[in-house]
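=== RUN LOG ===
request id: a7f3
mode: sequence -> structure
chains: 1
length: 224
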Amino acid sequence: MPTALPDRRGDNPPGGPDAPAALPPVLRKATRSISVMLVCFALLHLFFLFLHVAPENQISRRYAGQIQSWVFPFFEQNWRLFAPDPESAVPQISVRTAHTSADGHYQVSAWFDLTAIDNAGVRHNPFPSHTTQNMLRRAWTGYLDSHSTSDVSYTDRAKMWQEYLRNIAVDRVDTRPGAVEWVQLRVRTSPVPNYDAAGHTHPLPPSAVDTRKLPWWKVTAHDH
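=== RESULT ===
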């Protein structure tokens, strides 16, 4: 006849050697304090994001500066995931540089097509990087949204987008030979062509292409 196994449920009393050691009082208080701080931080973050995406109201108008400072540039929100906004125009961004020669004259380079480099990195690539697809295009969109038709940065956010766009251009031309003291961008915006029933497109007239040259921007050692 088999022997019954002993019941070991009561071998170790509560607080015995198998029970986890209790934290010291100081650590317990520190853990509670950190937990409360994290919860408050998360609630404050969600509250600011809610005010940012919600329709304009008295609270969002009163604390607009604090909300913008919190959200931008790292927590920007939009509704494009739910209501995508297809591109209706295609920007082609080029850059040229200038520097002072030994005789004191400015030497200006030819235009260098930044968009063509991105397009070449995406074409025939089954897994193009997010940087190649969106960095330059998103920088121009942010600059356009914050500056409109003016190239003067009236707000800190506009200045941030200007510096971001300039630094991208400097980073891409800095690997080319020659000193870089100034950079200028040229943006040619073309509407997305329409396709006919046969799937063909018609050439765009020259008047449909909008060309915009941005001011010359000084390049400092920090931008390299």
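=== NOTES ===
The chain has two domains: 25-71, 89-223.
The first strand starts at residue 89 and ends at 100.
=== END ===
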